[in-house]
Amino acid sequence: MPEAIKAGIMFSILGFVIGSVLGTIRVLYLVPRYGPDMAVLIELPVILAISWNACGIILRHIPVPAAIGARLVMGAIALALLLLTEFTLAVVGVGQSVAKFFAQYATAAGAIGLAGQVLFGFIPVARLTIPHKASD
Predict the structure, then answer these.
(1) What is the mean pLDDT for each group of 10 consecutive residues in the chain (136 residues)?
(2) d(CA 62, CA 55)
(3) Closest CA to 123 of 55, 64, 65
């Protein structure tokens, strides 16, 4: 199981970096043109596709067993660390209140984003069941 933990940490880091880059593009370019809800809907498939490939790269370098339990651990760790990092950055780094941080999930854009993050956490498991190219 140590491989799953290591891979989960790496997947979380890559997920945060990917999300930061695409989130900046979403906020600066998509939100003003399409509004927050549509901007998240445009961003979501892109971030999930990039995350799918990032997961494949990690799995090629860290031998996580091709078993549902190990992949669930990897995804759960990645999701938990991603959410914790976002919370810490918002509350400690930017000074957002805890209440305001959680209130964002009550909006359509926030709920869509959270659903996307949960899907991100399941990518390691999905890679067990969904056929993919050898280059992934």
Answers:
(1) 93 96 96 97 97 96 94 98 96 94 95 97 90 50
(2) 10
(3) 55
Residue 18: in which H helix or E strand, if any? helix 2-25
> What's the pTM?
0.89
pLDDT at position 129 = 76
In 3D space, the residue among 64, 63, 77, 69 whose CA is nearest the CA of residue 8 turns out to be 77
Three-class secondary structure of residue 43 per DSSP? helix
- How many residues are there in the chain? 136
State the Cα–Cα distance between residues 75 and 36, nearest whole angstrom.
27
Which residues are CB-neighbours of 58 under 8 A, at least 6 positions away? 7, 10, 11, 14
Which residues make Cβ contacts (< 8 Å) with residue 52, sequence separation at least 6?
A: 123, 126, 127, 132, 136
At position 67, the amino acid (one-letter code) is A
Q: CA–CA separation, 39 vs 60, rounded Å?
A: 32
